[in-house]
Amino acid sequence: MSAPVDGGREQRDAGRAVAEDAPVFVISVAAELAGMHAQTLRQYDRLGLVSPGRTRGGGRRYSPRDVALLREVQRLSQEDGVNLAGIKRIIDLESQVEALRRRVQELLTELEVTESRAVAAESAMRAGYGGDLVPLRPATSALVVWRPRDRR
Which tens digit of pLDDT belongs to each residue from 96-135? Predict the structure, then answer.
């Protein structure tokens, strides 16, 4: 496989586009690509570190993203000495950060649309009234006390 294409969303495999999260590799191929034993992949699945897709018959199918995650688990374990519980926590936190980044981007896009609509509405209002709008009365902090009249 070559390097990720289209912002990391696809990878090229023998001239065909493969979605990064498409479950395409059987466990033996994924294990070979990740440089691990297939039993290690089964153990990681049981622990919830890497959860591959499943076929109707229950067979595991790993995506290119899963293989990259397997490599990261191996790196954290072997090079950095992080235990599996720590790795699971790291993966969970990274997933949360990514979800929050996506949400922030959605909100920024929504804010941009709302601001442009507000500017357009203000421009349309000014054009329709020809600039004749003035404040009704200035804001004041005066206090008015009301007393009922005596009925004598």
Answer: 999 999 999 999 999 999 999 999 988 887 777 665 666 6
What is the model's pTM?
A: 0.62
DSSP 116-133: HHHHHHHHHHHHHHTT--
Which domain, by its residues, includes 6?
A: 1-82
Helix (H/G/I), strand (E/B), else coil: 27: helix
Between helices 64-78 and 38-47, what is the axis angle to 10°? Answer: 90
44 and 77 housed in the same domain: yes
Q: What is the DSSP letter of 26?
A: -
Same domain (yes/no): 112, 64: no
Beta-bridge partners for 53: 61
- Give the whole-angstrom CA distance, residue 119 versus residue 51: 47
Strand partners, 119: none
* Assigned token pair, 110: 């929504």
